[in-house]
Design brief:
The protein has four domains: 5-120 and 275-401, Rossmann fold (3-Layer(aba) Sandwich); 122-237 and 411-449, 3-Layer(aba) Sandwich (Rossmann fold), CATH 3.40.50; 470-520, no CATH class; 531-799, Rhopdopsin 7-helix transmembrane proteins (Up-down Bundle). Helix 2 crosses helix 3 (82-92), helix 13 packs antiparallel against helix 15 and helix 18 packs antiparallel against helix 19. The radius of gyration is 51 Å and the shape is rod-shaped. By secondary structure, the chain is an alpha/beta fold. The chain is built from 21 helices and 22 strands.
């Protein structure tokens, strides 16, 4: 059977390289190169037989005995199968013959005479992962050859897929090309059926052209039974080539690959190769034993003998057919990846021979005619040593060299196969892999240029994607790709599809309603622009003006009996302290600052302690007024003044000491609370020490309670202007306000907490002002006849 059309291009690339080198008068001026070709076979013993034949005299199987002076073996190029390369290397390495072929460092052999000519495929595997990630495919199938290369493909690709959260729906092993076809027909049909039934819409083929064509028959039958396309997207690696079809008759198989995506090793155009192909003539090249057979397969014709008739379905080969007229899927006039590797392998051998012949070390002896090398042993050629250090640019401009760990870079083109209704086939470049590009930029794809078999981007996923605002939750007992979507917890967000976990927003931000992004929090504090702040400031100002008006009235009426009663000086102190109390809310409105935070609670506690102490002193004054009943009693005057003054001075002093300790130990400070209220940053004054804050309130409460008790017991003492009953009610209001303040204060957040304290200050201050002074103002302003000494005397006499 003649070689496959694409295989024949490998032979042509080899012959073209040899022809160029024999014409090169600089590289090898005194040597003529030739080649022998051995057909690769699937039989296990064939590589061994071929290896032994290469190192033997022609037609005599005597290893390492070669008496053919014209057949001096310089190197062996092949095989294109890594398993065959390993078998050959086990023999050839013992005789130090350089071998340039296809293989992998993971194949389990390390031969010092073996040099790998195919590029490392790890970039292609990474390109597959990048392709899956770009289209968000996480449920894919793998079909690989049932040999070492297929095993390495799965072992290499599977971890890369797992690292990127891509699951393998199934893994099938395709039987390599074999002469025994019938036993494998059922297996191929079963594999195709499994591929079709799988939910994975994307299937990766890591097989060669000779093996995959055996799957075409069951695929064709499946499509025929179904009446439509299989609907799968085939992803083909560079090992598969559409041009490996046997002839134009097999063109019908290509329609099954409509919409496929495949990788192809990027090669440069080799100068002169197209002209070399154009010069092919099956009638003038008798030395090429393959040409006529290939010509018949490629052009679907027959070289007939003169007495032979042309059948109905055949046409006679004229020899005038042109290879460049063939469809690219049958034959390409540009070197493919395999052909390019063979071309470079031939030149590598030539450069190694040149280095051995013209190096500064021992030179190879030459026969007098300058045409052939002497009968030296293989190890004496020194080609093996030279191969490891050669570095040259080929005729296409690429730099060729061998690396220690086979890490030579290779670029790939990503192509899209399109089968048109008129029966034509096109390969459209839609992307590529560039190993020299910066990390993250080595993969490129143009999804708009891809024609899919399903008319739209395939959905090759186990489940629907999780939208932003949700995260994945892996279900027990199911693959990692078959997850469910759950909403992000409170305070977290996810801004990408299929998020592994939700991310917590920064402190100054919070997630929006959909929890797909973080937005800046608004700073929350009681400002003058807020309605609540405006109302609070207005009420505080109103209370200050009212208190000032009452103070003005009492100063104006300072000589009247109602003002003189119950210690006129204490009245002024109380009204002045109430004025200051009405100004305290202005310390609570506005953005908290360090100075304001230090003054806020201290001023409030001290000023209110003065007010409550004044009330207590006035109550005690009423009681003392009836303890010493004799008019003009010196003890009465001393008790009145000293006791009242002591209370007004001592009680606020204790409060001042508490505040001083507070400032010295743990003073209040400005603080930003990011956690209490979602979506807001609370600008507040942190009290520093909650214990000291409640100590200030407790002391005020204690003074108010004492004032209430004293006033309660003195409320029925006879006096025309007895304030005890009014003070009792005012202290009742005062205590009620501050008792209700504590739970309300603890249950509110942000500016409402500040508003509660302002309300308590204003309410308690207004309670004191209203209960104690409004009755007196009523008498002074509306009943002036009651504000007289006669009325006071008559009231006392009536009481007696």
């Amino acid at each position: 059977m003649p070689p496959l059309p694409k295989n024949y291009q490998y032979i042509l690339a080899l012959g073209f390289a040899i022809q160029e080198l024999n014409k090169d008068l600089v590289l090898l001026p005194n040597a003529t190169l030739g080649f022998r070709i051995y057909q690769e076979s699937s039989f296990a013993n064939k590589p061994t037989e071929t290896s032994l034949a290469l190192i033997s005299t022609r037609r005599q199987m005597v290893p390492n005995y070669n008496c053919d002076k014209q057949d001096k073996l310089l190197s062996i190029i092949g095989s294109l199968d890594s398993k065959t390369s390993r078998q050959m290397a086990s023999i050839l390495s013992a005789f130090k013959f350089p071998q340039l072929g296809y293989g992998s460092p993971k194949l389990g052999f390390a031969s010092p005479s073996f040099y790998r000519i195919d590029p490392n495929e790890i970039l292609q595997f990474r390109g597959l992962v990048s392709l899956f990630l770009h289209f968000r495919w996480n449920w894919v199938g793998l079909i690989a050859l049932e040999d070492d290369t297929g095993e390495i493909f799965i072992q290499t690709l599977a971890p890369l897929l797992a690292q990127n959260d891509i699951c393998v729906a199934f893994t099938e092993k395709a039987v390599p090309e074999t002469h025994v076809l019938l036993p494998h027909l059922k297996q191929w049909a079963k594999q195709v059926s499994k591929v079709y039934k799988s939910e994975a819409q994307t299937v990766v083929f890591f097989v060669d052209a000779n093996s995959i064509r055996y799957l075409m028959a069951p695929i064709t039958q499946l499509v025929k039974n179904k009446g439509t396309s299989v609907g799968k997207v085939w992803i083909l690696t560079s090992r598969w080539d559409f041009a490996a079809a046997r002839s134009a008759r097999t063109f019908k198989y290509l329609k099954h690959f409509h919409g496929s995506v495949f990788f192809k090793i990027r090669t440069r155009k080799v100068p002169g190769f197209d002209k070399f192909l154009s010069a092919l003539d099956p009638y003038r090249s008798p030395e090429d034993v393959f040409l006529r057979g290939w010509w018949e397969v490629a052009f679907d014709c027959k070289f007939l003998k003169p007495d032979q008739n042309v059948s109905k379905n055949q046409r006679n080969c004229t020899g005038q057919e042109k290879p460049e007229d063939l469809p690219t899927f049958v034959f390409s006039t540009e070197m493919t990846g395999y052909s390019y590797s063979i071309y470079n392998a031939v030149y590598s051998t030539a450069h190694a021979l040149h280095d051995a012949m013209y190096s500064t070390g021992p030179k190879l002896a030459m026969v007098p005619d300058g045409k052939r090398l002497l009968n030296l042993q293989p190890w004496q050629f020194q080609i093996l040593a030279s191969l490891s250090k050669i570095r040259f640019n080929n005729t296409a401009g690429d730099e060729i060299y061998f690396t220690e760990h086979d890490k030579r870079p290779a670029a790939y083109d990503i192509l899209n196969g399109v089968f048109f209704p008129n029966g034509s086939w096109a390969e459209v470049k839609v992307g590529g892999l560039d190993p020299r590009a910066a990390p993250g930029e080595d993969f490129s794809i143009n999804p708009d240029a891809i024609v899919w078999v399903t008319q739209k981007t395939p959905f090759s996923r186990c489940v629907e994607s999780c939208p932003p605002g949700q995260s994945r939750k892996v279900l027990e007992g199911r693959p990692a790709c078959c997850y469910e979507c759950v909403s992000c917890p409170e305070g977290t967000f996810s801004n990408q599809t299929d998020a592994v976990h939700c991310t917590k927003c920064p402190e100054d931000q919070y997630p929006n309603k959909k929890q797909e992004q973080c937005i800046s929090k608004k700073t929350n504090f009681l400002s003058y622009q807020d309605i609540l702040g405006m109302v609070s400031a207005s009420l505080a100002l109103l209370l200050f003006l009212t208190t000032s008006l009452v103070l003005a009235i009492f100063i104006q009426q300072r000589d009247t009996p109602i003002v003189k009663a119950n210690n006129r000086d204490l009245t002024y102190v109380l009204l002045a302290s109430l004025q200051l109390c009405s100004l305290c809310p202005f310390l609570f409105i506005g953005r908290p600052k360090k100075t304001i935070c230090l003054l806020r609670q201290m001023a409030f506690g001290t000023v209110f302690s003065v007010a409550v102490s004044s009330v207590l002193a006035k109550t005690v004054t009423v009681v003392l007024a009836f303890v010493v009943t004799q008019p003009g009693n010196v003890a009465r005057k001393v008790l009145w003044r000293r006791t009242a003054n002591s209370i007004v001075v001592a009680c606020p002093f204790i409060q001042a000491v508490i505040c001083a300790v507070w400032l010295a130990t743990s003073p209040p400070f400005p603080n930003l609370d990011f956690q209490s209220t979602p979506g807001e940053i609370i600008a507040e004054c942190n009290e520093g020490s909650a214990a000291m804050f409640y100590a200030v309130l407790s002391y005020l409460g204690f003074l108010a309670l004492v004032s209430f008790l004293v006033a309660f017991f003195a409320r029925k003492l006879p006096d025309s202007f007895n304030e005890a009953k009014f003070i009792t009610f005012s202290m009742l209001v005062f205590c009620s306000v501050w008792v209700s303040f504590v739970p309300t204060y603890l249950s509110t957040k942000g500016k409402f907490t500040v508003a509660v304290e302002i309300f308590s200050i204003l309410a308690s201050g207004a309670g004191l002002l209203g209960c104690v002074f409004f009755p007196k103002c009523y008498i002074i302003l509306l009943r002036p006849h009651l504000n007289s000494k006669d009325h006071l005397v008559r009231k006392k006499c009536k009481t007696i």
